[in-house]
Amino acid sequence: IIGNGPYRLLLRRPNEKIELERNPHYHAAGAVAIERVTYLTLEDLNTELNLYRSGALDVTSEVPNTQVSWLQQNLPGELHIAPYLSTYGFAFNLARMRDRDARVALSMAVDRGQITRQVTGAGEQPAYGWVPAGVPGYTPAQFTWATLPGVDRLLLCADASANHRRTAIALADQWRAALDVEVEVLEMEWKAYIALRDNPGDCDLLRFGWSADFIDAEAFLALFESGHAQNVPGYRSARYDALLTESRLAWDAEQRTASMVLAEQLLLADSPVIPVFHRVSKLLAKPDVEGVAVSPLGHLATRHLRFTTKK
Predict the structure, then answer these.
(1) Tens digits of per-residue pLDDT, 190-247?
(2) At the N or C end, where does the chain have fewer CB atoms within 10 A?
């Protein structure tokens, strides 16, 4: 691999680890303090936590939601939580879920506050729109019913019609209580999930989240353009496409933002997805690791890290 970044590849063992060394040709090589980095490929967050607590890891990628409270109490200086531009939710299979009112009802019945308080519990924000707060110059749209009291919302929706598992089960319980709808939760390996996402068949809902790869509302809204490769629900709207085109051709920032807000409002009205919460990064770093600062895109750059003690 040819690159000009702060590190270059030494070794890659699929499903095991990646080893990097500092790139002496990097333009700011003198500011890169850590000479060599090893990333482990781990599928289970509890395994990752155990390795960290045993001293085998200096930094984790994430922590289990069930352990956040314990970690806040017992390792407060090592747990780093920060918001970033990411939305967690579920996408409808529009080939089956064609009734807009039914989709809206399922979305309205979700108690997002309960999910973020009792299920995730790390400071995630309830999501009443698709684009999270924090995009400069953009005020996200919200569902028209977002400010209704919970009781009123439930009445209206009834009239209208490991971390992931805990969230899915909580949603299933809420739908059963509010709408008398029974949901079967199906867990599968990542490759099988990706295959199902491309061809959902008789599956009505798919876990679907998105983290921005650049800091702009376009990073979230472009997904639902007709024919987009990541348009998981298969949403198609000529008006939505036209609004995105308007935003891209706009000659001034206010006009561009206005078109994107209208597009998001239309998206929320049509409800091809159920945004549940806006995520936070939550990782552990040993006390002798300095420079831990997660970017708005959820990235922790190793080039900014250094050890206060010799390794």
Answers:
(1) 788 788 777 887 888 888 899 999 999 999 999 999 999 999 999 999 999 999 999 9
(2) N
Q: Phi and psi at residue 7, in whole multiples of 5°? A: -130, 155
pTM score, whole prediction = 0.82
Q: Starting from the edge strand earliest in sequence, which strands make up the sheet with 273-284, in order? A: 125-126, 273-284, 79-92, 205-211
The whole-number pLDDT of residue 160 equals 46
Distance CA 58, CA 263 (A): 43
SS3 call for 159? helix
Distance between CA atoms of 128 and 108, rounded to whole angstroms? Answer: 10
Q: How far is CA 89 from CA 53, 147, 205, 248, 274, in A?
A: 31, 19, 10, 26, 5
- CA gap 116, 118 in Å, rounded: 6
